[in-house]
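Sat 14:20. Reprocessing the chain from the morning session after the first attempt stalled halfway. Input below, unchanged.
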Amino acid sequence: MTLVFQLLCNGELSLARVLRKNILDKMDQKKQLRYTNSLKPLSARGVAARPGTLHDFRSHEIADQLTLLDAELFYKIEIPEVLLWAKEQNEEKSPNLTQFTEHFNNMSYWVRSIIIQQEKAQDREKLLLKFIKIMKHLRKLNNFNSYLAILSALDSAPIRRLEWQKQTSEGLEEYCTLIDSSSSFRAYRAALAEVEPPCIPYLGLILQDLTFVHLGNPDFIDGKVNFSKRWQQFNILDSMRRFQQTRYELKHNEDIVSFFNDFSDHLAEEALWELSLKIKPRNIPRRKTEREEKT
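Finished this time. Tokens:
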């Protein structure tokens, strides 16, 4: 669904509908299975309590462990899986890519759940600022995957609609410029072109580019192989292959990884909205940011 969202942002409505039809049914089925259970607090679902909170760990150490987890899954992805996904969106034929995508989604929903389950506004604010600090370190590590997973959580509707300090809201907007879709993600593409490996790219954009190339160009022209299409596909996939060749040299921290618990302790979208509306009912207007006040 991240890919569908980006397509909609770029005005590719027809392509978004095609992908949505192939993906949405599978995702809805998974969400429905866990919806009833996710309405309960995590502690009430038999989840073993782990000592400490996110604040017990340093932001750069958390970023390191997020990067190691991402890297382990990223290095397993085979190039043919990615190319095949752009054509068929078949989870069974792209198992490693599917696992990587699910990891991204679980992490994003885990971040949302941690924040929105805090009863006090000041506690929610502290966590949001903590995640912003983590994002800074992820950017230094060239880990765009976790960076965008966290950003998508902080910028999600159930979180964004809540009341935040003006400085916090404005600070978050600065991070959103990296994934501004109005210019085909120019800022992100420029940043990615300048990085030196190791790096974990955002695969959503790679899949989007491959899908555009696949749907916008025929395989054959006048009975001959369309080498222009193959060359475009090669260039997109070659950058990913290059990043897979250089490994991170970071130390494993079992305490932090155990705290993550595979990001399995998270709420579904419906439960997130329920808590968001409990914190702030719909009839209470959201305070405008400085940018919104100027427009």
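The mean pLDDT is 84.
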